[in-house]
Amino acid sequence: MSTLLESTLNPTHAVLDQTCLAGDPWMATVRAGQTLRILDLEGNQAVDTLFYSAAHAEERYSAADTIARNGQLYLGLGTRLYSSEGRVMLTIVADTCGRHDTLGGACSSESNTVRYALDKRPMHSCRDSFMHALCHCHEAGALGLGKRDIAPNINFFMNVPVTPEGHLSFADGISGAGKYVELKAEMDVVVLISNCPQLNNPCNGYNPTPIQLLVWD
Amino acid sequence: MNTIPANLLWDELLPGGHHWSGRLRGGTALCLTDVQGGANVSALFFNAEQPLERYSMPDTLKSQHTAFLTAGYVCQSDMGRVLCSITADNLGWHDTWCGVSDAAMVRAQYGEKNYQQYRNAMLRNGRDNLLIELAKWGLGARDLVPTVNFFSKVVPDANGALRHVPGHSQAGSSVVLRFEMDTLVVLSSAPHPLDARLDYAPADVQLHATLAAPVAADDACRTQCPQNGRAFTNTERYCGVAA
């Protein structure tokens, strides 16, 4: 698989061009017909991402619907990202990485105590970034989002291979500096990102780095 | 069918295609048995006193380095605790990825069978089954996360393309869940979303609730991996129980 396709979009024509620093959250609205690019600036950076319908936030990205309706465990070029109500929210229209994960979820201080050691609880985590964004970003306030709305996410640029025997592992990233994924919005969506701060496993190459977000009309 | 277990608290038949919810206290166990073969039980688990805490597919899979569930594994919450442990299983694989069917999928695959014409033989779907039960506890669509699909097996090829394994669960297949904290359990027995059979004939599921033996220090689920040991410690701290 791993079909790669470069984008024809020109960054100088983007209507939004922002950098999300290492370990920070990011939230924005992308309208139907617009294209969002997530760019891994320095390589090996997991980008934990959730989508909500801007009109009706109970409709949100659904990992299970995306897996079952595509009949595919991994995300890549052409994957349709389905909502909890079975509608296509976005489609992956360009990809220079080749595979993205939706099984591994987001790290949290609580899951860090289980996965690594009880004393890892104070380390910065994606779900703490999500909570911070829910408390501070006006999109979250407008939609009334809270912890109930944090469901299993997408990890762009992360590689979580599953063998036919069902073994799951966190492998070294297959992303590199300058790789990107582009998503065309099929409905108005609110994007919630945690630029992953995890330091305990190779998902960020043990060195979290910034990402760039671009949107085109 | 299994014989009636010792320490029986109650039993109930969950007919194929239907839905159920209830509270299982810490220290009790729930045995699910496929009556005719070909059952599917989509399950959600919540902390009964604070349902903001719920079963997490990613946390469960990544801490145990598995993509499926069977005996020896636990269903972890999104707060680092164990909601329930799988203490017995004669199937070897329960699906965690595929979630549930919805009304449009069931209509497209099996045709229209509504209440007006078919009464209680109407075709129910997984999503609506779970939403109906969630609503009884003040919960709803926001709380509907990926389910465990007991009795179903879906395997990936080397590229991640998925295949539902027909005939995986035979009559009499059973799985036992031991609850480690007070848990709200929400079940749907509608068909698995990737089950390609064209006849809507999900099997009935017998539920038996029993008192469980205390968790021993060398318990197979607790000692499955160091991660599970820490999740049990987190659970004991939450429940105010000495480790």
Show the helix and strand layout.
The complex is a heterodimer of chains A (217) and B (243).
Chain A: E1 16-20, E2 25-30, E3 35-40, E4 47-53, H1 63-70, E5 80-82, E6 88-95, H2 109-115, H3 126-136, H4 138-143, E7 154-156, E8 179-185, E9 189-195, E10 211-216
Chain B: E1 8-14, E2 19-24, E3 28-34, E4 41-47, H1 57-64, E5 74-76, E6 82-89, H2 103-110, H3 115-118, H4 126-135, E7 148-150, E8 154-156, E9 162-164, E10 174-179, E11 183-188, E12 205-211, H5 226-239
Average pLDDT for all residues of chain A: 95
Question: Count the strands of chain A?
Answer: 10
The strand line-up of the biggest sheet of chain B is 1-12-3-10-6-5
How many separate domains make up the residues of chain B?
Answer: 1
Q: What are the low-pLDDT stretches of chain B, counting only 5+ consecutive residues below 50?
A: none
Question: Which class of secondary structure composition applies to the elements of chain B?
Answer: alpha+beta
Helix content of chain A: 10-25%
pLDDT < 50 stretches of chain A: none
Give the termini distance of chain B in whole angstroms: 37 Å
Strand content of chain B: 25-35%
Secondary-structure element order of chain A, N to C? EEEEHEEHHHEEEE
Q: How would a textbook summarize the main sheet of chain B?
A: 6 strands, antiparallel
From the spread of the alpha carbons, the general shape of chain A counts as globular
